[in-house]
Amino acid sequence: MAAVLASRLDVAPMCDADVDAVAAAEQRSYAFPWTRGNFVDSLKAGHGMWVCRQGGVLVGHAVMMMAVDEAHLLNITIVPERQRQGLGGELLRHAMAVARGHGATRMLLEVRPSNAPAQALYRSFGFAPIGRRKGYYPGPADQGGREDAIVMAGDL
């Protein structure tokens, strides 16, 4: 089901036809992006996946996996030119509402220690660090090639 959040962001389920545009947005957004295959595999796995648009223009996407009473936010992205406008918060709010609707009571996610803006966003939604995954993310070769992840959890 599609939704309009705060009359600013149109959110709809991601479909096969969205994958190329989503993969391109991901490439523009991260030094170590998900691949097109990651999105295709997530669609095949039945994960909750959304695209969001403003005025018909793709501005972000999210991927969430449900596991009984927990949701795991696997990817949430707003394209660089639309960041710092509150859109990430709107998309996160949408994912949290969907998770609650499926009976989840908690959401987990990983975030890079180097991504202070994302950490601040998650904290503003009540997420708190609960652990660390060593070498979870690919990273620059000059920094050992890997970066840890901070695991955060938030009650729904």
Question: How would you concisely characterize the structure shown here?
Answer:
By secondary structure, this protein is α+β, with helices and mostly antiparallel strands. It has a domain at 3-110: Gcn5-related N-acetyltransferase (GNAT) (Aminopeptidase, 3-Layer(aba) Sandwich). The protein contains four helices and eight strands, in the order E-E-H-H-E-E-E-H-E-H-E-E.
Helix and strand content put the structural class at alpha+beta
Q: Can you tell me the CATH topology of one domain?
A: Aminopeptidase
For CATH, the homologous superfamily of one domain is named as Gcn5-related N-acetyltransferase (GNAT)
How many individual β-strands? Answer: 8
Can you offer a commentary on this structure?
By secondary structure, the chain is α+β, with helices and mostly antiparallel strands. It has a domain at 3-110: Aminopeptidase. It contains 4 helices and 8 strands; from the N terminus they run E-E-H-H-E-E-E-H-E-H-E-E. It has helices spanning 19-29, 36-45, 87-101, 116-124; strands at residues 3-5, 9-13, 48-54, 57-67, 70-78, 106-111, 128-138, 146-155. An 8-stranded mixed β-sheet has the order 1-2-3-4-5-6-8-7, sandwiched between helices. A hairpin with a 2-residue loop joins strand 3 (48-54) and strand 4 (57-67). The longest helix is centred in the middle third of the chain and has 15 residues, at 87-101. It starts with a strand and ends with a strand. The model has no long low-confidence stretch (mean pLDDT 94).
